[in-house]
Amino acid sequence: MSALDSTLSVLFLILSYLIGSIPFGLIFGKAILNIDIRQYGSKNIGSTNAIRVLGKKIGYLVFLCDVLKGMIIIILLKLLNNIWQTPIDYIYYGAMAIIGHCFPIYLGFKGGKGVATSLGVVIALTPLPFAILMVVFAIVFYTTGYVSLASTFATISVLITVWLLYAFGTTNSGFLNSFIAKPTLTLSIIYSLMSVLIIVKHFKNFKRLLNGTENSFKKKKTKD
Fold this sequence. Notes:
Blueprint: H1 3-20, H2 24-33, H3 47-54, H4 56-79, H5 91-102, H6 115-125, H7 127-144, H8 147-168, H9 185-201, H10 203-211
């Protein structure tokens, strides 16, 4: 790896972290409604709390921006591939964005849980795990109404799918083969670390689930 390659890689890694650190939930809450999202609901800056506190329109905007944080540098580098090809795995840039979201430098390293930003990374790098996680998330969320539970099961589904692809995936090129492409060992390991981080970040939610105090988006049926 040349000195230029090393320098550019470091700069893009730093940029990924800085972009990942942007607290869109806090920014949109203050700019649009003059609300500090950290003072309401779960006090988390992520999109789930944003939907509850700021409303669906702003909350979904926060979600979209948080997803894009995990994708933007990876997509940019793929577009620049003919000009400069990164000497390190794309997953490193995604990982830095996730770390930025969970531990943002702008907020004293107190951030979100990394679910939406991790989703952006998965969309950009691994289409089949993305498709499976969406199905798993939809099923669990529809049946329980708990975002935390749906996110956890979706995270586990990605972890399992990636390691199955690492064991049995193809190395052939082509559009269809990209869905069952064998990921690198680096990607598989970092996905595992991402999964652990997301699960650890949800420990408080698990306690509330056990206590029956976790917030649910599922409407409770009223008795006649």
